[in-house]
Amino acid sequence: MGNAKLELLKIVKNTSGIKCAAIELRGYGANPNIILKLTHSEIELASFLNSLDFEYDNGYGGQELYGTVWLKDGTWMTRGEYDGSEWWDHNVLPSIPDYCLAEL
User: Fold this and answer.
1) Which of 1, 23, 28, 37 is 20 to 30 A from 63, alpha carbon to alpha carbon?
2) What's the whole-model pTM score?
């Protein structure tokens, strides 16, 4: 079992913070979407995180959490999944290789 909020905060603590987010919860009732808008307040951020404060089966089976979290440092996180086992992938824009740079 895993806690969705704690998993997210574990990765976010090493970044500049959450810019915005869109998370979909499959199989969690009538309101499965948790959205944090770009212009969020600290109260809205706390509410977003509290919405993720639940235990779920992050082991094998069906994927339960989907979505993207954009971070203030220009990186982003997406949900990874293999055979129902879930995690957050922290994505960083790769550096441009020298052979793609313009010659001066």
Assistant:
1) 37
2) 0.83
Q: Which residues 6+ apart lie within 8 Å of 6 measured at CB? A: none
Residue owning tokens 């129902």: 84
Element (H, E) at 2: strand 2-3
How many Cα atoms sit within 13 Å of 101 on the Cβ side?
6
Q: What is the DSSP secondary structure assignment for residue 100, as one 8-state letter?
A: G
Q: Give me the chain's average pLDDT, please.
A: 88
Tokens 């220009």 belong to 74
Q: What is the 3-state secondary structure (H, E, C) of 19-61?
A: EEEEEEECCCCCCCEEEECCCCCHHHHHHHHHHCCCEECCCCC
